Fold:
Amino acid sequence: MNVPLLDLVAQYRDIKDEVLPAVMAVIERQAFIMGAEVGQFEAAVAELSRTKHAIACASGTDALLLPLKALDLQPGDEVVTAPFTFFATAGAIHNAGGTPVFADIDPATFNISPAAVEAAITPRTRAIVAVHLFGQMAALEALAPIAERHGLMLIEDAAQSIGARRTVDGTWRVAGEAGTVGTLSFFPSKNLGAFGDGGMMVTQDDALADRLRRLRLHGGSKQYFHDEVGFNSRLDTLHAAVLLAKLPHLADWSAARARHAARYTEAFAGHPAVCPPRTDPANEHIFNQYTLRVPRRNELQAHLKARQIGTAVYYPLPLHLQPCFAHLGYAKGSLPVSETASEQVISLPVFPELTEAQQHTVIDAVLEFFA
Structure:
């Protein structure tokens, strides 16, 4: 049985009668740039994220880049983040003029370690980028006081965690709600994916929101008048229309992912070689990825590929060891938890439309390999 890592065709078939009229409405109006749907989607995401502002942009990468540009980083300014994440997190720091400083992760959740963040801060530190990896939030109850104590911007990289929640000091907080700014991605593989790239920045800060709106539109709040040099980073109206049509399904899709994750975890519980992902008890995990730790990871991946089962390795080389960051001086062994994770992790299909039969095919194939 063929089991893809992600089946966007199945998702489209379920919702095409909602998506196509939304897309055609934009086409009929020919309102492709900053059309009404963009503002409507911003309002909907602000409500979901429980923030005062949501500012749409062209990609999840730009959603990171623009707040970092708003810091006006100078040469030598540092931004602390995790090395075990997608490249855009550190790439945006570099492209905003900052120096990435990597802090190791918690081995159980794969999220950045607050103790490692504290140890990485220097007088040159300007911000912390806390990645909510794979669908569960980092320990904001520890990270926010660190940021406040040192006067730092706290950026929640929630590219993989839209709608995820965490109890912080006894109160549920949604991804993006509590930091200085939260960043979202609508890359097609995300729980809420566009028909291309798209991103969003959410914040409670009025002044920051105004600056981000200028930065996404060439640095001006009025057409042809520019307060600074900004970017061309708008969310296309067509993407906003698609996302508005998909948004009412997001909670059900994330709940389906969680059910699939629970079935995997039950099947692998207690296995001597297969380590299921751990959900922090404070978190409501949305499982953008279901990521195992296993020995002989590459051999397992080949075994599953031979049985037409899709998998992925997120991520095979941590950021501090990427060739483009060699000048930062990190050596192999400097961030051992991230390095070990990169050697062991493999992500299994967990998309909402995954059937029980498909999932049992995956489970049986994994257990067969380790029999």
In short: The chain has a mean pLDDT of 97. The CA atoms of residues 33 and 236 lie 6 Å apart. The chain is about 40% helix and 15% strand.
